[in-house]
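Lecture 7 notes: from sequence to structure.
We start with the chain below.
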Amino acid sequence: MSDTGRPGQPEWVPGATAPTHRPAVTPQGAPGPSVGDDGPGEGAPAGRPRWLLPVIIGVAVLVVAGLVAGSVAFFGARGGDDAAPAETVTLPVPTPAVAPVGRPATTAFASALPASVLQYALVSSQDDAEWLGAGALEAYTETFTDGDAGTLTVRAAQFETAQEAATFLQGLTAALPVVAPDTGATTSTESAQADGPDLPQTGEVTVGGAPAGTFTVVDAGDGTGVAVWQNATAVFRLTAPLADVRDAYAAYGL
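Predicted structure tokens for the same chain:
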């Protein structure tokens, strides 16, 4: 019996095994894309793969990111240069090249006087008869040397009260040398003064944050400078090379 017409079995027809959705033939004779192929989708331009557009976008994003990063690094570096703090150079404090001599006086005031000031060391100390005659309880004239041609002279006195010291300081300040105004001519003395501090200077002397007197530093006009000051009941007059006078006053310590 033929199987044709057996229930549940499809009828076999010769030549029906070929796919019923065979691709159509293009005008050039090549088959076009069939359903399910990876060809261009509906509305896509002919001949451009789908993966090309995302690649182009990705490359553009990378280029823009690189330009932004480069600009930030460039301007950031310039800003860093502008904001860099200036370097501060601290020079060592000068010290004497020679040893100081011993001071003959042994009172508490004399013992408190320094034996060296910057590069200057004490070479002599003696009673100051003039200041003793002006009412000081004790007074000394002391000479310091830098071991070469530089010298520093200090006159120091102790008074009974701070008011007496202040009155004596007023007389010293009034007698300070006054440098003549600049007339436009340049002299050897003015050339030496060009390397000195900006003078005159005046201000308050403080001890432990409390006022103890005043100070004045001036240019003597002969290559030296003079500083006078009061510290409670003590009064001082310091003469030094002009370039050192302000630092010597600050380093004296009393």
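Points to note: The chain has a mean pLDDT of 78. The first strand starts at residue 116 and ends at 117.
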